[in-house]
Amino acid sequence: ADSAPTLEAFCRDLVEIAGSSYVSPDRALAHRAVDDDTRFSAYIADLIDQAILPADTPVAHLRRVFDTFSRNLDALYAYRPSACDIDVLVLRATRALPPDTTVLRPWTPAARTLDEHSLDGDHFSIMRAPLIERIASLITDRLALERA
What pLDDT score does 119 carry? Predict the structure, then answer.
């Protein structure tokens, strides 16, 4: 399987954690790499060149983090929930995944009801003010409904 899209997502996350805007490396970079390790090193070097990561970044450690990230992403996309008699609240970060991403669609037939709310941000920015207050409000409202 092509690891380039997962590596792009990983690098985008690193950049967003740093509070910067992601600039995808030269597309030829992914195609010039002869193997996954070479591609990974080239992408990390690009983030170091952009000053997103420090020059002394422990690349071997970051590779292990990427491998975990990749396995988690694979698990997310492979997961298919069983039918359940519950209401599901989905909070979607509009800048985290493309609008046509189907990662949340397995919940549609599985849940009794699906209440989806879009938040204008990525999955890091929604966890900071002011969006975190909106999330807290949505969860509080949902819990109040459940208790009623």
Answer: 92
